[in-house]
Amino acid sequence: MFIGHNVPFINDKNPRAANVHSELQTEDHWDCVETKVEAGTSIGFSVTILCGLNIGENAIIIVGSVVLVDVPDNTIYAGNLAK
């Protein structure tokens, strides 16, 4: 597996610093969701991956892409929004 530099894995579907009353969020407010990356995957530099996705075996995600959907095995995804 290869993961390039500057690849954030977003881990909350609704990340917020404060609630509707402008009070700072605490760790109790976060709902972390797992993302699975399978063997043989290559993720290029500056790719952003949202949470709760499955990145398939031997998948390639091109530099700068934004991934909002599952990436099937043996596919190449690119772009903003990656397809």
Shape: elongated
CATH architecture: 3 Solenoid
Count of discrete structural domains: 1
Gap from first CA to last CA: 20 Å
Count the beta strands.
8
Quick one: CATH superfamily?
Hexapeptide repeat proteins
CATH class: Mainly Beta
Strand content bin: 15-25%
The tally of helices reads 0
Gyration radius over CA: 14 Å
The strand line-up of the biggest sheet is: 1-3-6-8
What series of H and E elements makes up the topology?
EEEEEEEE
The CATH topology comes to UDP N-Acetylglucosamine Acyltransferase, domain 1
Percentage of helical residues? under 10%
User: What's the pLDDT, averaged over the residues?
Assistant: 90
The largest pleated sheet is described as: 4 strands, parallel
Q: Helix/strand/pairing class, anyone?
A: mainly beta
Spans with pLDDT under 50 lasting ≥5 residues? none
